[in-house]
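Q: Start with the shorter request: fold the first protein.
A: Done. Sequence, then structure:
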Amino acid sequence: MIWVGSATELDRLLGVLRDAPLVAIDTEADSLHSYFDKVCLMQITAAGEDWIVDPLAGFPMDPIGAILRDSKIVKVFHGADYDLRILNRDFGFEIRNLRDTMICAQLLGYSGIGLAALLDRHFGVKVNKAHQRADWSQRPLTPDMLRYAANDTHYLAELVAKLEAELRDKGRWEWALEEFSRLEQIRHTESEPDPESFRKLKNIGRFSRRQLAALARLHAWRDQAARHADRPPFKIVGNEALVAIAELLPQSLRELKQIRGMTAGQAGRHGQGILDAVASALALAEDELPEIVAKKQWIRDKTLEQKVDRLRAVRDEIAKSLGIDPGVLAPRHVLATIATDRPAEPSALAAIPAMRRWQIDVAGEQLVSAIQATL
């Protein structure tokens, strides 16, 4: 394993990458250890060598971006979606000529599509998952952590070759290429903050409007505290403790310390902020309290559901014959769109943005016949 922690070491890596027909790539971020997560490592295997790039070292990463954009070089990932988003977010990287071994495994109908399952299946390698939740922003990294990180790309070149051979043997390589092409379009997009996100916490079904107000204020306070400390919200105060505080509405530090899940350290660091949030909820007028929102009932369209069920039965039969997961062939939202649009010809399925050409080729005629039979 070769550590890349300086511009000089990066130049050496770039010399290898520019001549490599294929590079395997993975990333490690610190989302479990910070509020503003970032790419902490970039693992690259090329020409039989494993490299680990340190993006936190301060040298420009742009030259790697040029390699990733080079369509002459194959880039192999496993489960690329998240990697593509954070590489685009942090460095503006865009990827060309991409391969994804997880997608290959899905199109082959493998029951285990995780990297650990694939390495075990094809190489007899047992992955030690001890560092799955590691803090990759720490420096220095231990030798075990470095070996763990390098292992994520070490086998990808051989793995993708094996999977490509299987896909070609089944006549499905073109399916994979279409999926890879779609992956290449992925970009990072900022999600809008949800002011009602506090309602997603568990065990609040019996809360009064006053307790919901306290939970909303506590949830907002915790998010702000997490931002300020650059720590994940659950490391400020856990969800269970936050819900317990909103339920019991403590008005003193002594009451707060008695709540299950609150540590003395948390009470000492955050006690005043928590009590202020509770007090602000207690001070609200009745008409300012949030409504108790009952569970939303689906507005059922029984006719549409019957059509989707008919399409599902057809899809499941085709997926079974192909030996792949039905959701890979056509997820439910695609079936619902077909049931709503009622296309008259298989070619009309191309107007559905989520529908792939390979899916139309293998299932389009049967799905259209099934929906036309319901008219």
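Q: Next, the second protein, separately.
A: Sequence, then structure:
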Amino acid sequence: MRTSHRLDSIPMSGIRKMFDLARPDSINLGLGEPDIEPPAAAVEGMNEAALAGLNRYGPTAGIPALRESVAKRFSGFGDLTAGNVMITPSGSSALLEVAMSFLDPGDEVLIPSPGFVIYGPHAVLAGGKGVEYRLTEGDFQPDIEDIEAKITPRTKMLMVNNPSNPTGGVLEEEPYKALLDLADDRDLMIVADEVYNEFVYEGVHRSFIPRLDRAVVINGFSKTMAVTGWRMGIAIANEDAMEDLVKMQYHLCASPAMPSQYGILKAMPGLDGYLANARTVFKRRRDLISDRINEIPGMCITPPKGAFYAFPSFDCDISSADLAMMLVREGLICTPGSAFGKYGEGHLRFSYAADESKIEAGMDILAATVKKIRR
């Protein structure tokens, strides 16, 4: 059976590729999956909903009570109503829905590099083209001059990920304003992936919610509540864009899962306390992995300010793909920087969503492997 040219033209995720190659006893610092338990209220709410028979189709945009709760939670960033919110079957599907709703064949999308692996393929699946723009080394801020140089008459969309996967970078005020100025001047649509907004350890989160005239904001519950298997996301947009997104979502899935929505809804009132504990856990792990990496000759990292990824550079004479493969053979799963775009080469991504014992053991393997290479 012959696959479509669209699907043939995009690669398999480098994150999944490394996971599939690993042996069963490997230390997994590859997947961004929190190992902490979800809020108890979320599990209770989902079970209660299922037992009460709420297992059928629901509203395409999500149940009204959850949309209202989300609007209230994010209203600190700007004026929102339930009409600005759509519940989606994952943040990833929300991003694909945006691409399918607003891109025409031949349109170009500016995507961060290093940047999350699905942005470019989503542009291609929608008939467009991804164009990588550079993030600055060290603090991983958008290189505004590089973005300006890559804008063409076909450029329609600008992807921003804040905080960033894979780098852990948190968008600072100057580039935040510069991105909005560019979007206004060149009539660009900003798609802001903000799924890690609750995991900022230094600085503040600058959301694009205040500019829904120019931006669509994507968020989700998978990371926030450690329910990656529930596949629950959020799209936030102005009412005109929302009408289009709801139409696209109907044709994609009809409606998001009902019991999961009720579980999320029940956990929303106690979310701040849950997240305060989660941030304490992840910050401690961030400090641990950053210290261990910087003790290894030939490797360097500035502690990331957000998310739960470390993206160190290395100066060994080897590609990131080959180094990651060596580490897999030694029992450590990570992701090569090249999986995140051409500007990711010379780096590795480690997730510190795993516990301290796994981080310690993984860094022992990293240190021993790099030492062999540098001999």
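Q: Describe the second briefly.
A: The chain has 13 helices and 14 strands. The first helix runs from residue 5 to 8.
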